[in-house]
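does this look right to u?? aspartic acid version
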Amino acid sequence: MREISKKEIGHLKVFKFGGASVRDAKSVQNMTKIIAAHQNEKLLVVVSAMGKMTNAFEALLEKAIEEEPAEESILEIQEFHSNIIQELDLTSHQALREDMEEIYEQLVHGLNGYSSAFGYDFVYDQTVSLAEVISTKIISAYLNKQGINTLWVDARKVVKTNNTHRQAMVDWGATQAMIKSQVLPQMEEQVVLTQGFIGSNAKYNTTTLGREGSDFSAAIFATSLNAESVTIWKDVPGVLNADPKKFENTKLYERLPYKEAAEMTYYGATVIHPKTIKPLAQKGIPLYVRSFQNMEERGTVIEECIVPNLNPAIIHKDNQTVISFKISDFSFINEGHIHTIFDHIKRLDLTINLMQNSAISFTICMDDNPKKREQLRTALMEEFRIYYNEGLEMITVKNYNQDTINELMEGKEVIIEQRSRNNFQMVYKVN
Ligand code: ASP
Ligand code: MG
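got this back:
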């Protein structure tokens, strides 16, 4: 047996692996290599649901609402996980099999018992959270089988939140106390593996932190544990200046100031969850974004730093709607009108991605949401003539230069264009 020594104090790291990094048996094996290379340090690993399982679990909920029996609707999900279990040679793992049976039972029970009386968001959290539980149960069994002493920790017991299902707010005091007292002592001699995205309220009902929230979970654990660093292992080489799926010749940032990274997420960059940076910045914990395929590459570090001449960051958003509110009686848009419009936007919990005003109109750009757009129109149609354009796209360029803008604008029918000292934004039609 391998001798286990007490891990060095002060070298506590948090790793996070997203769905793409654990989407199949091969990825799990790859992740295991990364963890093995760090197992002599104090290590907490946050893992999210495998592949696209969170979407698949959301779909289960829709089927439950249509009263499809859960025993049937969960078959595909079961098969997906069973295949991975088989490929990882865990089929005869008794404890894992029992865990899986119990989770599926819980899932079926919850789905078949679906009633709108519980509230959709509540049932969503109880259901979709199980994808994270399944993923971490499988991975924990595999890590142990590979000789990495791993403890599975239930994030629902230590990440405490309020009652806002699907968008729960963290109770930082309670969470930090729980993680310090329950998790930290466990890290002396083993790797701790836990889930992202999930927590629980004061009554111990499961809550979730918002889609893609496991980056944020990693930050929650890291700040509570006073970690030396957080590393997000991803299917990209680090933080790039544009999404490589949409743009060519993207460039990697080797270093990024916290502020810059946080603003990129504000404008819609999806490489890191928007809530992740703030808690880390407050504690000065650096965030590494690295490629899980090439663990020798250094990737990007986000920390307190000054980087002169940052490459322009290009952030693309699709499914945008532009709405214009016009005054019809020859008076001008004034603060009173804007106040009225904002009042309704706030009430409907809408987010404005860009706004612009002229003498007789006020224009906003937001994510497409036909239902809320209609509610907004109904609420304001007496006071304004309202026009909208949907199915548009938006690009924000941080730290722009004219060459980049010219290139991006070429051949596009631009509807709104705006620039400040550092940022350029445009909304355009999709051809
Ligand atoms: N599995 C969750 C989601 O896909 C959380 C995460 O991956 O960050 O939203
Ligand atoms: Mg995920």
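The CA atoms of residues 310 and 399 lie 7 Å apart. idk if thats expected tbh
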